[in-house]
Specification:
The structure is a homodimer. By secondary structure, chain A is α/β, with parallel strands linked by helices. Helix content of chain A is 28%, strand content 30%. Chain A has a single domain, classed as 3-Layer(aba) Sandwich (Rossmann fold).
């Protein structure tokens, strides 16, 4: 199933108002960490899977990437991306992540930010990413953390006074579909264990070079006190891997 | 701090009555998975960090390992290990994991089963393991899973009727000491994130070849219905890595 929730007008409207949609990468809590994990992009041919508004595509070009292809299934997302991009070296294509079919060795770097937990057949996608990377090329992906996706409710456990007691984990080993709620809409996500993310990459022919479960920086904790809760449980998992 | 809780008579007595202490590897829920991840041990020189009663040392010799060194800080554990081992190719040494100091390339395989969450300076130990392995040698370790060690209580969250509601996670990003309770004794453990385990290995010069968050097999679920709870949260993390 290829989900296109971003073309649901209500969802798109809500998504468009998120801080990261309005202010871009600097409003994304995990961006500092993701950026630090990205390889040098200068003169690289970059593919962004699930590019959304194109923030990472434009960032890659700021870092002097030679060319960038951003793909996304959502017409809404791509229309906005094109609207705010003036750069002939960035090409946006409307395409499901599952349907990519690029030639062997077409890219030096493949990125995917918070999109692969929407994909049912992770192994197929990782196989295709491996195919379209040059040997030695880098794949950097971020997903919602398995600790975060295990329970479909994706919410804290509260005490009788409405305080956040802890983050509940259950059904961790039961991989597969989760009917979650995001921005007041039903969204289908796929829960996978940490082991599955890692082993799928390794078995496909990648060497894992870095893992991150990003946490707020001291500066962020100072400026946004509610970020303290983001030290209580991992919300994202970032993996960098190099094609063997 | 090098903890030697296993030489506390009360703890040792309780530990000695655990199924895995009485019946060995076949009574350890994660053993099938750990065994499947071990490399071929034939003719290998093997080191076991935190060998306890020596079950893995004897297994290695059954697999025709050339020689095995098992180290453990506990006199009690080693006395029992020696008592139930008749094999001149297995050498037991009383030594803290933190104090290993083997020559470069002394071993082909290093194992450590459920011991490294007791070690404060993980990076030092991994450095020493790297040093004493031959290039291409394998390090296989299991630890209590970070989802399991995050909260010192290491217990389920129960509803008002005493039923297990879910596994609580909190303080995940706060790495360090946890005053836990194991077999009615206070035990010091060190909580680390999944990312820290992985990155410490990678940065020391290992390539990660396999991750496992073992879950009960269908057979085990049939035979021991209460094992169903072990599908609800990961309890162990197993990592196999090869020295670059």
């Amino acid at each position: 199933m290829k989900q296109n929730i971003y073309d649901d007008p209500n969802f798109f409207n809500n998504y468009s108002q998120m801080p990261r949609s309005v202010d871009g990468l600097k409003a994304a809590g995990e961006w500092d960490e993701l950026r630090s994990i990205l390889p040098d992009l200068q003169d690289k041919r970059v593919l962004d899977l699930g590019c959304g508004f194109g923030w990472h595509c434009r960032y890659a070009r700021e870092q002097l990437a030679r060319s960038v292809v951003g793909i996304d299934l959502s017409e809404n997302m791509l229309a906005r991306a094109k609207q705010i991009t003036e750069d002939p070296a960035i090409e946006y294509r409307q395409l499901a992540i599952e349907d990519i079919d690029f030639p062997e060795g077409e890219f030096d770097v493949v990125l995917s930010s918070l999109a692969l937990h929407y994909v049912e057949q992770l192994d197929d996608v990782i196989q295709k990413v491996h195919h379209c990377l040059v040997p030695g090329g880098t794949f950097v992906l971020s997903v919602e953390h398995p600790v975060f996706t295990a329970l479909a409710a994706q919410d804290w456990h509260y005490d009788s006074e409405g305080q956040r007691m802890h983050w509940p984990v259950d059904n961790y080993q039961d991989e597969g579909l989760r009917q979650a709620n995001f921005l007041e809409n039903d969204v289908l996500k796929y829960h996978r264990t940490v082991a599955t993310y890692m082993n799928t990459l390794i078995e496909t022919g990648f060497t894992i070079t870095k893992i991150s479960e990003p946490k707020p920086s001291a500066k962020m904790l100072d400026e946004i006190p509610e970020m303290r809760d983001e030290t209580r449980r991992p919300i994202f998992l970032i993996i960098a891997a190099v094609k063997n």
